Amino acid sequence: MEIWVDADACPNAIKEILFRAAKRVGVKTTLVANQELQIPNSPYIDTVLVRAGLDVADNYIVQHLQGGDLVITADIPLAAAAIEQGAVALNPRGQFYDAGNIRERLSMRNFLEELRRGGVETGGPPAFSQRDRGAFANQLDRFLRQQGFS
Q: What is the pTM (predicted TM-score) of this model?
């Protein structure tokens, strides 16, 4: 089991939680981004630098993940592709995507995108909060325990 991180848009607070977890339980964690990232020195933490472009990091993750891996992303299409391949997807706010909710989320994303293209202001997600950070840490810890990491 490996953790894959869609790192370009991942909040720094979430990266720090992932770094601590990787070191604590010894789980391979790979951050994929189109810019250089600062990571702690650890045999469990790695980065992959991809070229800039739409969905380049997402495509890299999808091409390299395996069933049972964990993908950290707020990107709904990436989460859907990961689930399709048997991976698990968790967003930085601590919510798991699964086969039961991903279609609804894709539909809502597409609907909002259509509204924006039509000139409707849809706003964005709420600001990332301490509550989100705590929810993510709790869900990550629970998932790692379920996978046999302690």
A: 0.87
User: Do residues 51 and 34 lie in contact, with contact meaning Cβ atoms separated by under 8 Å?
Assistant: yes
CA end-to-end span of the chain, whole Å? 14
* Cα(95)–Cα(139) distance, integer angstroms: 8
Report the alpha-carbon angle 35-37-41, nearest 5. Answer: 155
Name the nearest CA neighbour of 93 among 22, 35, 2, 11. 11
How far is the C-alpha of 149 from the C-alpha of 131, rounded, in Å?
24
Instruction: Summarize pLDDT for 106-138 with one digit per residue, the tens.
Output: 666 555 577 667 777 766 677 899 999 999 999
**Which residue stretches of 32-88 are H helix?**
56-64, 76-84
Say what angle helices 12-25 and 130-146 make with each other, to 10 degrees: 30
CB 18 within 8 A of CB 72: yes
Q: In terms of Cα–Cα distance, which of 65, 99, 104, 88 is closest to 140?
A: 88
Tokens describing residue 28: 């391979």
Kindly state the helix (H) or strand (E) to which residue 70 belongs, with its residue range: strand 70-72
Helix (H/G/I), strand (E/B), else coil: 122: coil
